[in-house]
Write a structure and sequence with these properties.
Length: about 400
């Protein structure tokens, strides 16, 4: 395996265009070994077939805390243990706990129930764009792409509107960690977010409603389905995962369309194209750049490389979505691309529970924006845009646009 110096995965230069580096890894070191910010041996998998294997492999554990074993926990940095209270959710668990936790919420995210939110998402998108139209410009991230998914998931959970910005700030702080100093700085957010969730749960216990939080509280009180820490962690996951990826889909998808005006015009002329268009934007922009971590419970062979027991493994979804072995002309944006078996929602038992909701929000938000403003354009050069920090997600921090 050739020696390839790892880049600063969270730097502005890398985040603006990580795809050439991933293309090199796919050719020269598809199962790439480097040292992570926690100084642990880490592997980055980049080819489509290998990423698919990692996402589904039973010997790759998601339970970094519970299944780590005494040896691993002993050498785990004490700072990371502070995050354990918000890690008792289905994303960070293996079966049977994963199966039990997922079963408690999957009924709230079926395509049929999500479709019932269509009119609410449409009304919210229209209202936000009405406000933007009066100004003639906006930051598409903070004034649109963020507000749509934050509002919807918060309403589903029964979070008071006055708290939306608060939990979004904590969420952004927690997913932006790129080094040990960032982890240290995020500790107050973990503490405040956890305290806020416990207070919210206590308030709801005394006044149950018909929202998802009330349903989870009742499941906890029924016994042996959800304990108190799992309840806090589940709400944390739903609030964070329920909006972070969709923010990047809407903002990154809009940027991709503006950089490909022929595809933008195609979408305006063919509104029925919106469903495959969103799938292509999910592939091309890859809102989740890298999967959350897994670790090997035993020696695992991926792409002909044996990864030793106890090592961290990350799957580069953005790389898999541009793999020339899977997609024809992978670096081209083609809104009518078929087939399009992208991995942006993952694969296997951890396939994104909120995929139907993200698709609905993305379709409505993007089509409404495109149809409403035929003169939509970037208000500053694309190369001057700043990108969100953090290894896992990819999207612009701000996206100033002109509407007329």
């Amino acid at each position: 395996m050739p020696t390839i110096t790892p880049p600063d995965f969270s730097s502005q230069h890398f985040k603006a265009n990580p795809f050439p580096f991933y293309a090199r890894l796919r050719q020269e070191a598809p199962v790439y070994h480097f040292t992570s910010l926690t100084k642990e041996p880490t592997w980055l998998v980049t080819r489509y077939e290998d990423v698919s294997q990692v996402l589904k492999h039973a010997s790759l554990s998601k339970d970094v805390f519970g299944a780590a074993g005494a040896e691993r926990r002993a050498r785990m940095p004490w700072l990371l243990k502070i995050f354990e209270p918000v890690s008792q959710n289905m994303l960070s668990k293996d079966p049977p706990d994963h199966t039990r936790l997922r079963s408690l919420v999957h009924k709230a995210f079926t395509p049929r129930l999500i479709e019932q939110l269509r009119s609410r998402v449409q009304a919210l998108s229209d209202r936000l764009l009405d406000e933007a139209a009066r100004k003639g410009s906006m930051d598409l991230v903070s004034e649109y792409a963020l507000i749509v998914p934050v509002t919807i998931i918060a309403e589903m959970l029964g979070v008071p509107p006055s708290d939306y910005r608060k939990f979004q700030h904590w969420s952004n702080r927690l997913i932006s960690n790129t080094n040990l100093w960032d982890v240290i700085l995020s500790v107050p957010s973990v503490v405040m977010f956890t305290r806020y969730l416990r207070q919210l749960i206590a308030q709801r216990r005394s006044s149950l409603g018909d929202d998802l939080l009330s349903a989870l509280i009742q499941a906890e009180e029924a016994g042996d389905k959800l304990n108190a820490d799992e309840l806090v962690s589940m709400i944390f996951l739903l609030l964070v995962a329920g909006h972070e990826t969709t923010v990047n889909l809407i903002s990154g998808g809009t940027l991709a369309l503006l950089q490909h005006p022929e595809q933008l015009e195609r979408l305006r002329k063919e509104p029925g194209l919106i469903e495959p268009a969103v799938e292509e934007l999910l592939r091309y922009a890859s809102p989740v750049e890298v999967s959350t971590e897994r670790f090997t419970k035993e020696d695992v062979t991926v792409g002909g490389v044996t990864i030793p027991r106890g090592h961290l493994v990350f799957a580069a979804i953005a790389s898999a979505n541009r793999d020339e072995r899977q997609f024809k002309n992978p670096d081209a944006l083609d809104l009518g691309r078929e087939p399009n078996r992208h991995l942006s929602f993952g694969m296997g038992i951890h396939y994104c529970l909120g995929a139907p909701l993200a698709r609905l929000e993305g379709q409505i938000a993007l089509q409404t924006l495109v149809n409403r403003f035929p003169n939509l354009r970037l208000a500053r050069p694309a190369e001057s845009l700043k990108w969100r920090t953090g290894v896992l997600m990819r999207g612009p921090q701000r996206l100033p646009v002109s509407l007329s």
